[in-house]
Each structure stands twice: as C-alpha cells, then as structure tokens.
Amino acid sequence: MARPTLARVSPENIRHNAHRVRELAPQSRIMACVKADAYGHDIVTAAKALSGNVDGFAVACIEEALILRSHSIDKPVLLLEGPQSADEISEAAAQNLTLCINEWHQLAWLEQSALPAPLRCWLKIDTGMHRLGFKPQSVPGVLARLEANNKASDLVLCTHFSSADLPGENGVPEQLECFDNAIVDTSYPQSTANSAAILRAPASHREWVRPGYMLYGGSPFANVKPAELGLKAAMEFSAEVISIRDVPVGDCVGYCGRWEAKRPSRIATIAAGYGDGYPRHAPDGTPVFIEGIRLPLAGRVSMDMITVDVTEHPGVHIGSRAVLWGDNPGVDEIARLADSIGYELLAGMPKRVPRITSG
Ligand SMILES: Cc1ncc(COP(=O)(O)O)c(C=O)c1O
Question: Is the predicted pLDDT of residue 68 greater than 90, yes or no?
C-alpha cells in the first residue's frame, strides 16, 4: 500500500489555461514557462500537455532543457538564464536550444564559439528589474556585435517586469517605455509579458508572451481568485486521514501545544506535512477540504502530518481524503495564510509527493 499522499495534475486544466492565454493575447506566440519542474507539476507532464497549444518552452537551465529533449519534446526550448559556461553553447547547439543572452560574458562566449550554424538567441534588456539583462544604452552596441558576428539567428528582444502583479502603479508602463526606447530603430520580434502582464497589460503582449503561473491555474494577483481570471487549478494536492482521536477540553495538539481544545474535540491526523511541501507556517484555522467542507488546521504542521479539528463533521473517518490545495482551498489562499506565495509552495513540492496525471 502506498502512502496516501499525492498531487493529481490535470493536463486538461493546463491546456484550458493555455487557451486562456491565447484568448488574451491572440496575436502573440506563447513561450510556456516550464522551469522548476513546471512549477512543481512535472515538466514532462506539463510540456506534453501543452505541446499542441504553445510555440515553445522556457526553462531556467540546460539541465531542464535536456529533460525535455530526452522526452522527444522538439519545440523551441529557451534557456532563460542563458549559458552558464562557454561549453554549454555547443551543447545548446547540439540540442537545438535557444539561448537568452543576458550578460557581456555570455555575448563573448557566443562570439568565440565555433558553431556549425547560427544559434537562435533572445537578448535580454534590463528595464528596471535589475537582475539580468543589458542596460538600455548598451543595446545598439550589443546588437551591432551580434549582427556583425553572425552567431545568432532569429533574434527576439525581451525584458521582464518586476511588479506587474501589483495593483495601481506597478511600473509596467515605465518599463515598457524604457524597452521601446532602447529598441527604437530595430524590427526584431519582442517579448515582455509574464502572467500578470498577459492578464492586465495588453500593450505588453508583443510577438511572444511568456506565461508561467497562470498556466498552472494560479492567480498572480493578491485578491483575485483564479476563477475570476478564467483559470483552473492544474494540481490537487491531497492526503488521507490516518488517525482520529477525541481531545478533552484544555488538552493541546501537536508540537509546542499551539492549539488547545476549548470544547470536547475530534482531531483528524492527515498524512502530509512540511516534508511534502505543506507550509510549516500555516496558522491554526487554515482550511483543509474534507468530506465536502472546509475544516480548520489545529496545531503546528509537522514534517509528515497535519492535524485538523473535525469536531463539526462527524462524517470524517479514517481514509477520508483531505484536499490541502486545489480548487478549494486554492494554493494562493494557503500561501497567503502562511505568508508565502503560491509560486513558492508549488515549486517547492518535493519528489516524495507522487505527481499523478489525471484524465
Ligand atoms: C524571465 C521570466 N519570464 C517569464 C516568467 C513567468 O512569470 P509568471 O510565472 O509570473 O507568469 C518568469 C518567471 O519567473 C521569468 O523569470
């Protein structure tokens, strides 16, 4: 018997979310972000689900790209962080990968490489995130070098927003203006939009959009539910009730006795904890969906288990399935309660939790 703890991943919902991207940005090609194991959903499952619906896949590093190639994913694969060494350029060429050139040393590696043919490249411009990319004033010089050297083909000019998910003044118009000024005399395709910008900043869509979180059904906005954005959760993380006990008034539950019974209580123990990616900082009251209702977490999250106050629901029994996140509660809701973000919870889910493909 396997441990009753699993993450069910829905390729259908991932595809639904990709259709949503198409609806929102019908003129753009889609570079689907499947880095960090497709935000915890399993990179191969996600890439296979999306193969017919997107135009390429973005990963952080060559190791992730090689997983895609070894599973016969032959669409364009973009290395967002670019090559990490000169050697990676020939490996990228052998695997027909696309490199993002972010830094001067990466440009020099590309120029010095001995490639049989030019390699597809994107060029990153730093318009305010100050993480990666060339300064706007350097762009004409970098482009002149790339054009003279003939090592890069199918160039795309890109940038990344720092705060597109924030309400009100989020810097997107300023970053776009900076981008447009930097590339004013060029006619290369462009890419700027992440999920938040796809959803809220149509002026940013350009030739390529780069959705990540929304493909998995998460809302990038603090007070907006995925359903309000037309998105469907692609993962349901659940486990079973493995013990039920009565706890008398005044007794405490779990490490350090954080939760105390104020009435005769029934506590269910569920086989998932922070060792499975459930956030250790989830407070008492964090909802867990069991037998049709939301019931409150009671006591500290342990490595392998959580405890839930099921006094209100006599129907909960050993073997009841408890949804930790999915449609209800959503991962964004759990993350917010635990002072995290859904991105972190999903990307941090360990391999111990089997990803089961549904449908
Ligand atoms: C360069 C780049 N583009 C696109 C994305 C996708 O962002 P999101 O998951 O918010 O859609 C990311 C995510 O971190 C990124 O780093």
Answer: yes
Mean residue pLDDT of the chain comes to 97
Q: How far is the CA of 271 from the centre of ligand 1 (A)?
A: 32
Residue with the smallest CA separation from ligand 1 atom 14 is 212
Ligand 1 touching residue 190 (CB < 6 A): no
Q: Which of 324, 325, 306, 323 is nearest to 268 (CA)?
A: 306
Instruction: Label residue 359 by pLDDT band (50, 70, 90).
Output: low
- d(CA 172, CA 160) in angstroms, rounded, equals 10
Delimit the domains of the chain by residue range. Answer: 11-217, 235-357
| CATH class label, 11-217 | alpha beta
- CATH homologous superfamily of domain 235-357? Lyase, Ornithine Decarboxylase; Chain A, domain 1 (2.40.37.10)
The Cα–Cα gap between 40 and 33 comes to: 12
- Ligand 1 pocket, residue 35 CB under 6 Å: no
pTM above 0.70, yes or no: yes
Pocket test for ligand 1, best of 54, 131, 160, 208 (most atoms within 8 A of CB): 160
Bond before 329 cis per omega within 30 degrees: yes
Q: Which atom of ligand 1 is nearest to the CA of 160?
A: 1
80 touches ligand 1 (CB under 6 Å): yes
pLDDT of residue 1: 72
Indicate the burial class of 26 (C-beta count within 10 angstroms; 0-12, 13-18, 19 or more).
exposed
CA pair distance 8, 349, nearest whole angstrom: 13
> Does 33 sit in the ligand 1 pocket, CB within 6 Å?
yes
